[in-house]
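pasting for the record
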Amino acid sequence: MSGKQRGLPKNKKLRHDTHFVDEITADSSEAIGRLIEIGQIRPNPEQPRKSFGDLSEMVESVKEKGILEPILVRFSEAEENYEIIAGERRFQAASLAGLRKVPCIEVDVDNRGMLEISLVENLQRKDLNAFEESAAILRLSEQFRYTHEEIARKLGKSRTIITETLSLNRIPEDVQDRCRQADIMSKSMLLQIVRQDSHEAMHHLVDKITGEGMTREEARRFNKADGSGKPRVRRFSYNYKPEDRPFRFNMTFDKKDVEKEEVILALKEVLENLVRELEIERFEAGAEQETDRKRSTRTPRAESRGNAELT
């Protein structure tokens, strides 16, 4: 037991996935393969995956064969350790399996490069759920200014698939939570939900899917017409969720196509209304304070007059 090699088996060489890591490391003469102490490695704070699922099978495989595909890392001088760029499930499994060292490929990239590699690598592995995938593609689009065509080319998918996947970000967070709880994670079914014309309609369709066991075809027919048989009116929805902020903003228009200028004007109108409401609240609060102040100044005088009459 004491002489057993942990980590990469002796009869295995460091290898990496030709679909992505080869492309990254081929551009850098600084890419180095090595065994690194597991205690010197820390998770990626920008990991797009929210849940790692059941790792039991992977843990057993790691115990028997070690880590056959190295983890992509970069060295952090500030923390004096290594940050995972790609391969977090393997790292978690190695930790649970009790490995002391894991095979890694070290590359020299900045924060932007680290995030981009992590997002693309996770997306290429096709094991993110539909919401994680849509959020990761949205970050590629917004943070790196990639067009839908560029993202499609990087991931080897059609532009239509990228556009459809991005549309899932329009599903409000509370509806997403219901879908996760009900295990409604099929992209085709989620696309029917996001095509509903309002927040309430999305909840209604989730109710029908969970309560009636609605199939994808039934959901598609439900999406085409309302109870009267009339075609549904498609509505444009604008969603905004900033990084590292505890809020999300959603605005829905009563028509299908909306220009950016219209969104800006609507946002200005919302802001102006909020400012007016705040000014009214402050004015009313100030008036109440002034009334309370006058009452407090009258009270001692009234008491003094009462005392004088008694004497």
